[in-house]
Amino acid sequence: xxxxxxxxxxxxxxxxxxxxxxxxxxxxxxxxxxxxxxxxxxxxxxxxxxxxxxxxxxxxxxxxxxxxxxxxxxxxxxxxxxxxxxxxxxxxxxxxxxxxxxxxxxxxxxxxxxxxxxxxxxxxxxxxxxxxxxxxxxxxxxxxxxxxxxxxxxx
Length: 155
Fold this sequence. Notes:
The protein is mostly beta strands and about 160 residues long. The chain has helices spanning about 45-55, 110, 120-125; strands at about 5-15, 20-25, 30-35, 35-40, 60, 65-75, 80-90, 90-95, 105-110, 135-140, 145-155. The radius of gyration is 15 Å and the shape is globular.
């Protein structure tokens, strides 16, 4: 059996009591999301996270802290996606006005919970602010076309 592995990164950029999110209004993933995207071979996970933040926001980030992994598996399609999640408050540069991924905006942390966003982002958002790391494993229910079993572990 051949498994389709895909690697992605997300990097939550924090400035005091605000976080940088993209107001994304296209394709299947509308709503507010942190910067992130695919890991391009042969770059490292942290290189990918830094590149994606730069491309989507214009900011250069450093001192990334690994926060956890979000796994999505679809046993019917043999898909296994792994999203490596980082957080930083160290950045420089000028914020872009808009990008193909959405408009970068600073949002107060307490207001994030009222924004439209994907369940996967909403589920892990509070975990960025907890001590330690997390592992979220989601199994897709192909028949129902929705998330099936979800497990969340904190370490």
